[in-house]
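ARCHIVE CARD
Drawer: 12
Card no.: 0347
Subject: one protein chain, sequence and derived structure
Cross-reference: see card 0346
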Amino acid sequence: MGIFSPKSPKFIDMIDLYLQKGSECMEVFQKALLIYMEKGDCQDFQQLVEQINQAESSADGLRRQLELTLYEKALIPESRGDLLGIMEAVDKIPNKAQTVVFLLDTEGLHIPDCFKPDFRQIVHINFQTFETVCRAVKAIFLSIKEVRKFTDEINRKESSSDLIERELIRKVFRSQIPIGEKILLKELIIELGNISDKAEDAADRLSIMAAKRLI
C-alpha cells in the first residue's frame, strides 16, 4: 500500500511528470558530459546546455505545483512535511547536474584523454542512481515496502561513485599536467561526486518516511 487516498490520482500523475522532467535533466546532463569529452565546447554541447536549463526550469515549476497541491488534502496530514522534504532533496540532484554542465560551459575545462574513462563511469553511475531515486519515490506512493530495496541500491551506487572519485583525484594529482589544471579538475570531480551524494540524501529521507509509515 502507498500513502494516498483513492481520491488523489491527479497528484500521483503530477509526481510522475515531475520525475520524468528530472530524468530528462539527467539524460541531458549525461549527453552533455559525453559530448564535451568527445568534442569539447562545440555547438552540440551548447544546445545541451540550453536543454538542461529548460528541463530544470520545467522541473522547478512542477515541484512548486506539487508543494501547493500537498496542502489541498491529497495526503494524510502527517505525510506532508516528510514528502516536502523528499521533493526538495530529489530536486537538488538535477540542480547539481546542471551546475556541473554550467561549470564546463563557463570554465572550458580540458579533460585529458587518460581521465575520460573514469569521468564516463562517474557520469553513468550518477545517471543510474537518479533513476533508482525515481523508483524509490514511486514506491513510497504505490508499494512502500519496496522502498528499502531501492534505497540500499542508491547507497551502494553512491559508495561506488565515491571510490572512483577518490581514485580519479589521486590520478589527477599524480599526473604531469599543470597544477592549475589539477585544481580545476578536482573541483569538477567533486561536483560530479556531489550528485550521488544528493541522491544518498534523498534516499535517507525516503527511508525515514517509509519506516514511519510501516510502524
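Annotation on reverse: The longest helix spans residues 179-214. The mean pLDDT is 89.
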